[in-house]
Amino acid sequence: MSNRVRIALASMLMVPMVMSACGGGGESSDEDFVAELCQAVVRLNTDFEAAIKSASTETDPAKAVEKLIPPIEKFVDAFDDADPPKDLEDWHDSAVTRLEAAVAKFKEAKTLASLEGFGDSPVPNPAPAEKNRLREAAQNVTECDGVAFLKPD
Q1: What does the buried/exposed string (b/e) look like for 50-87 if buried means 16 or more CB atoms within 10 Å of the residue's CB?
Q2: Of the four listed, 54, 71, 135, 140, which is most buried by Cβ atoms within 10 Å?
Q3: pTM score, whole prediction
Q4: 11 domain residue, yes or no
């Protein structure tokens, strides 16, 4: 098989994979968005548990708290990368800003108290109608089973 044929075949095979990875250019659904959020929360919980275990061996409290920063930063990055439906973009952008500010405050203060609000859910609430809509969508998403990605009412 010639190199041109190989390149052509590889290109034909790569286009669908790239399109699906990029969402195919379509608008994100509520289900897609909450799946991304739930996956980010699950990763946060897993990474945070490991960080707590590692921090528990530290004798310096500031160094112990520093070990908790990377999982939170990773969560904020994943939240930022999540693709919201069009009507939730403003809330999403605002939530990212609030989460980034919370991480900056945590990094500066290096106290667990500075993580206020992360306990029940790290995700700032959208408007009540959108919150209910996302919760309903989450009921149909297996990644969200047992995951609290929005604050309780």
Answers
A1: ebeeebeeeeeeeebbbbbeebbeebbebbeebebbee
A2: 71
A3: 0.76
A4: no
Q: Is residue 120 within 8 Å of 152, Cβ to Cβ?
A: yes
Q: Classify 146 in phi/psi space as left (phi over 0), alpha (psi -120 to 50) or beta.
A: left
Give how many domains the chain has, as a whole number: 1
pLDDT tens for the chain, 153 residues long, are 433 333 333 333 333 333 333 444 568 899 999 999 999 989 998 998 999 999 999 998 888 889 999 999 999 999 999 999 999 999 999 999 988 988 898 888 888 787 776 666 667 789 899 999 999 999 999 999 888 777 677
Domain membership of residue 94 (yes or no) is: yes
131 within some domain: yes
The DSSP symbol for 122 reads S
